[in-house]
Amino acid sequence: MNSSDIEVSFTRFSSPLGWLMLASTEMGLCIIQFCGKERPSEVCMRTQLQKVLPPADLRADKTPLRDAVKALRHYFGKRCPLPRLPLDLSRGTGFQQKVWAALCSIPFGETRTYGEVAKMIGQPRAARAVGRACGLNPLPIVVPCHRVTAQNDKLGGYTGGIHIKQALLTHEEQSLA
Q: Which of 40, 54, 133, 155 could, after both became Cys, cross-link 35 (CB 3.0–4.6 A)?
Protein backbone atom coordinates (compact mmCIF):
# COMPACT_ATOMS: atom_id res chain seq x y z
CA MET A 1 0.00 0.00 0.00
CA ASN A 2 1.50 3.35 -0.88
CA SER A 3 0.89 6.39 1.31
CA SER A 4 -1.74 7.86 -0.98
CA ASP A 5 -3.85 4.77 -0.23
CA ILE A 6 -4.03 5.65 3.47
CA GLU A 7 -7.51 6.80 4.43
CA VAL A 8 -7.66 9.39 7.17
CA SER A 9 -10.99 10.37 8.67
CA PHE A 10 -11.22 13.63 10.58
CA THR A 11 -13.68 15.66 12.59
CA ARG A 12 -13.76 18.43 15.17
CA PHE A 13 -14.77 18.31 18.82
CA SER A 14 -15.72 21.18 21.11
CA SER A 15 -14.03 20.71 24.48
CA PRO A 16 -13.78 22.91 27.57
CA LEU A 17 -10.26 23.76 26.32
CA GLY A 18 -11.48 24.91 22.91
CA TRP A 19 -11.89 23.08 19.64
CA LEU A 20 -9.95 19.90 18.96
CA MET A 21 -9.31 18.30 15.59
CA LEU A 22 -9.31 14.51 15.66
CA ALA A 23 -8.05 12.23 12.91
CA SER A 24 -7.78 8.48 12.55
CA THR A 25 -6.53 5.81 10.19
CA GLU A 26 -7.85 2.26 10.02
CA MET A 27 -5.34 1.44 12.81
CA GLY A 28 -6.80 4.01 15.19
CA LEU A 29 -6.71 7.59 16.40
CA CYS A 30 -3.61 9.28 14.97
CA ILE A 31 -3.93 13.01 15.64
CA ILE A 32 -5.43 15.38 18.17
CA GLN A 33 -4.68 19.04 17.60
CA PHE A 34 -5.73 22.03 19.66
CA CYS A 35 -7.48 24.53 17.39
CA GLY A 36 -8.37 27.34 19.79
CA LYS A 37 -11.70 28.98 20.51
CA GLU A 38 -12.83 29.35 16.90
CA ARG A 39 -14.57 26.37 15.28
CA PRO A 40 -12.16 25.14 12.60
CA SER A 41 -13.54 24.83 9.10
CA GLU A 42 -13.20 21.66 7.08
CA VAL A 43 -10.76 23.46 4.76
CA CYS A 44 -8.62 24.54 7.72
CA MET A 45 -8.56 21.00 9.16
CA ARG A 46 -7.71 19.50 5.77
CA THR A 47 -4.85 22.00 5.36
CA GLN A 48 -3.48 21.19 8.82
CA LEU A 49 -3.62 17.45 8.18
CA GLN A 50 -1.83 17.82 4.85
CA LYS A 51 1.03 19.51 6.73
CA VAL A 52 1.53 16.70 9.25
CA LEU A 53 0.54 13.56 7.37
CA PRO A 54 2.00 11.97 4.29
CA PRO A 55 -0.25 12.09 1.24
CA ALA A 56 -3.51 10.48 2.24
CA ASP A 57 -7.14 10.25 1.25
CA LEU A 58 -8.63 12.78 3.73
CA ARG A 59 -12.28 12.31 4.59
CA ALA A 60 -14.41 14.59 6.74
CA ASP A 61 -16.16 11.67 8.42
CA LYS A 62 -16.85 11.49 12.15
CA THR A 63 -18.12 7.90 12.11
CA PRO A 64 -14.68 6.24 12.59
CA LEU A 65 -14.01 8.75 15.39
CA ARG A 66 -17.24 8.14 17.30
CA ASP A 67 -15.56 6.18 20.13
CA ALA A 68 -12.83 8.79 20.55
CA VAL A 69 -15.36 11.62 20.71
CA LYS A 70 -17.46 9.68 23.24
CA ALA A 71 -14.36 8.98 25.35
CA LEU A 72 -13.33 12.65 25.34
CA ARG A 73 -16.88 13.71 26.30
CA HIS A 74 -16.75 11.33 29.29
CA TYR A 75 -13.25 12.48 30.23
CA PHE A 76 -14.29 16.13 30.34
CA GLY A 77 -17.91 15.71 31.46
CA LYS A 78 -17.81 12.83 33.92
CA ARG A 79 -14.25 13.55 35.04
CA CYS A 80 -13.01 10.04 34.58
CA PRO A 81 -9.97 8.44 32.96
CA LEU A 82 -10.08 7.81 29.24
CA PRO A 83 -10.72 4.21 28.20
CA ARG A 84 -8.14 2.50 26.03
CA LEU A 85 -8.68 3.47 22.42
CA PRO A 86 -7.09 2.03 19.29
CA LEU A 87 -4.17 4.32 18.47
CA ASP A 88 -2.02 4.74 15.40
CA LEU A 89 1.36 5.97 16.63
CA SER A 90 3.23 4.53 13.65
CA ARG A 91 4.67 7.90 12.59
CA GLY A 92 6.87 8.03 15.68
CA THR A 93 10.40 6.67 15.98
CA GLY A 94 11.05 3.62 18.12
CA PHE A 95 12.23 5.86 20.96
CA GLN A 96 9.17 8.11 20.71
CA GLN A 97 6.86 5.09 20.72
CA LYS A 98 8.56 3.83 23.92
CA VAL A 99 8.06 7.20 25.56
CA TRP A 100 4.43 7.44 24.45
CA ALA A 101 3.72 3.93 25.77
CA ALA A 102 5.27 4.92 29.10
CA LEU A 103 3.09 8.04 29.23
CA CYS A 104 0.00 5.87 28.88
CA SER A 105 1.01 4.03 32.06
CA ILE A 106 0.97 7.20 34.21
CA PRO A 107 -2.22 6.96 36.27
CA PHE A 108 -5.01 9.51 35.90
CA GLY A 109 -4.38 12.47 38.20
CA GLU A 110 -0.69 11.68 38.82
CA THR A 111 2.44 13.19 37.35
CA ARG A 112 5.98 12.04 36.62
CA THR A 113 9.07 14.05 35.75
CA TYR A 114 10.87 13.79 32.42
CA GLY A 115 13.68 12.04 34.32
CA GLU A 116 11.27 9.50 35.84
CA VAL A 117 9.88 8.71 32.40
CA ALA A 118 13.42 8.28 31.10
CA LYS A 119 14.02 5.73 33.87
CA MET A 120 10.71 4.01 33.06
CA ILE A 121 11.94 3.31 29.53
CA GLY A 122 15.34 2.16 30.73
CA GLN A 123 17.26 5.25 29.56
CA PRO A 124 17.85 7.30 32.72
CA ARG A 125 20.03 9.90 30.96
CA ALA A 126 17.45 10.66 28.28
CA ALA A 127 15.28 13.20 30.12
CA ARG A 128 15.74 15.87 27.41
CA ALA A 129 14.93 13.37 24.67
CA VAL A 130 11.83 12.37 26.63
CA GLY A 131 10.84 16.04 26.67
CA ARG A 132 11.26 16.23 22.88
CA ALA A 133 9.19 13.07 22.43
CA CYS A 134 6.47 14.58 24.63
CA GLY A 135 6.54 17.72 22.48
CA LEU A 136 6.06 15.59 19.35
CA ASN A 137 3.22 13.53 20.82
CA PRO A 138 0.50 13.50 18.14
CA LEU A 139 -2.22 12.54 20.63
CA PRO A 140 -2.22 14.96 23.57
CA ILE A 141 -4.79 14.15 26.26
CA VAL A 142 -5.10 10.52 25.08
CA VAL A 143 -1.34 9.91 25.36
CA PRO A 144 -1.10 12.02 28.53
CA CYS A 145 2.08 14.06 28.07
CA HIS A 146 0.38 16.71 30.24
CA ARG A 147 1.19 14.43 33.20
CA VAL A 148 4.92 14.94 32.70
CA THR A 149 6.58 17.82 34.51
CA ALA A 150 10.07 19.18 34.90
CA GLN A 151 12.00 18.86 38.14
CA ASN A 152 10.44 20.51 41.22
CA ASP A 153 6.96 20.16 39.67
CA LYS A 154 7.56 22.97 37.18
CA LEU A 155 5.25 22.43 34.24
CA GLY A 156 7.76 22.52 31.40
CA GLY A 157 6.28 22.99 27.93
CA TYR A 158 3.11 21.80 26.27
CA THR A 159 1.94 21.64 22.66
CA GLY A 160 -1.33 23.46 23.30
CA GLY A 161 0.26 25.95 25.69
CA ILE A 162 1.06 25.85 29.40
CA HIS A 163 -2.45 27.09 30.25
CA ILE A 164 -3.92 23.95 28.66
CA LYS A 165 -1.46 21.67 30.46
CA GLN A 166 -2.38 23.35 33.76
CA ALA A 167 -6.10 23.04 32.95
CA LEU A 168 -5.75 19.30 32.24
CA LEU A 169 -3.80 18.70 35.45
CA THR A 170 -6.33 20.72 37.47
CA HIS A 171 -9.21 18.86 35.79
CA GLU A 172 -7.74 15.48 36.79
CA GLU A 173 -6.82 16.67 40.29
CA GLN A 174 -10.37 17.93 40.92
CA SER A 175 -11.82 14.71 39.49
CA LEU A 176 -9.99 12.71 42.14
CA ALA A 177 -11.00 15.04 44.99
A: 40
Mark which of 46, 77, 108 sits at the end of a domain. 77
The reported pLDDT for the residue numbered 54 is 80
Rg (CA), the chain: 16
pTM: 0.92
Instruction: Provide the CATH number for the domain around residue 127.
Output: 1.10.10.10
Q: Are residues 113 and 166 in the same domain?
A: yes
Please check whether residue 143 lies inside any domain of the structure: yes
Q: What domain range includes position 132?
A: 94-176
Q: CA 4, CA 35: separation in Å to the nearest integer?
A: 25
The structural domain count of the chain equals 2
Q: Which residues are the active-site residues?
A: 145
Strands 28-36 and 7-15: unpaired
Q: What is the rounded CA–CA span in Å between residue 149 and residue 157?
A: 8
Q: Give the confidence band of 8 by pLDDT, cuts at 50, 70, 90.
A: very high
